Amino acid sequence: MSKHRIGFIGTGAVAELHQLSVDKLEHAELAGITDLNQERLSRREKEWQAKAYPDARALIESDEIDIIYILSPVEAHYEQAVQALKAGKHVLIEKPVAMTVEQIREIGRVAQEMNRICFPAHNYIYHPEMIKMKRYIEEGALGQICSAWFTFIIHHSEELASHYPGVIRQIMTHHLYTTLYLLGKPEAMSCSATKLHYQTLEREDQSVMLLEMPGGAQAVLFSSFACDDDTSSPWTYLVKVLGTQGGMNYSWRDVLYNRAIGTLGKAYPKYEELFFYESEYFINECIDKGKAPLSTLQDAAVVQHMVELAEANLGKHMISC
């Protein structure tokens, strides 16, 4: 069986994790890369032994590339995704998928028209423990779901945070698609946000959402770039779901060691593994077997709608989703 040939648009921090994951895939290989930063592109070409292309269009139009990973800033996602799909390539697109709901829907329309897969990189849900949690919930093992917590608490310096939008778009997007996957679409939501440690950046570094779920359960979503949690019971990244008959935890802090990679100053193996699990599912299940992603472009549009609602209604009481 010939290998799927993958091309990366973007070779920054998140691409490091994607490269490690692709390197472990049995039926795929990194065949091409491109980046606006020519110095970094030249360095990655040597490190990763992948052909460097002068720009995204050249990579997309190459006959030597089958699949495009869009790992560029979100502002470029829509144009690059549409170009890649129209060129007949399957696409994995980092989150946030696009800037607006309309852009996500148009990407979905083009993917359907071209009969190509566009896979949102909603990687947090692809860990086997998360898939198991969903199964237990659906089987009723936890009883009636009462509450859920989703937390991300990892300090980001102002310089690092300058490469991202605020935590609502950057981190709440993760929490929202995970909520959608595990519990379904919220009926109502409220959101507040604050800026605690940025000196010049005009964006939030901490936010909390309260969601009212079908059946009466409540979910609390918390995201912070302002601090770390190094307590004896850390909430660095935590998903907790409680029901009338039981509960489940999922945490990145089960294993931790000092080795920086990507954007994080410490190694959280459960985080790094997510990139392999999503690529494995994308290649083996979606492309090779025709299955749908566990989190679809339709889900990405729902999440983007909730993000936009949150930003437009900060500090207000519950609003309908």
TrEMBL record:
UniProt-listed Pfam families: GFO_IDH_MocA, GFO_IDH_MocA_C3
Gene3D superfamilies: Dihydrodipicolinate Reductase, domain 2, NAD(P)-binding Rossmann-like Domain
Residue ranges occupied by any Gfo/Idh/MocA-like oxidoreductase N-terminal domain in the UniProt entry: 5-121
Coiled coil: none
Gene Ontology molecular function: any one: nucleotide binding
Domain GFO/IDH/MocA-like oxidoreductase: 132-247
Full protein name: NAD(P)-dependent oxidoreductase
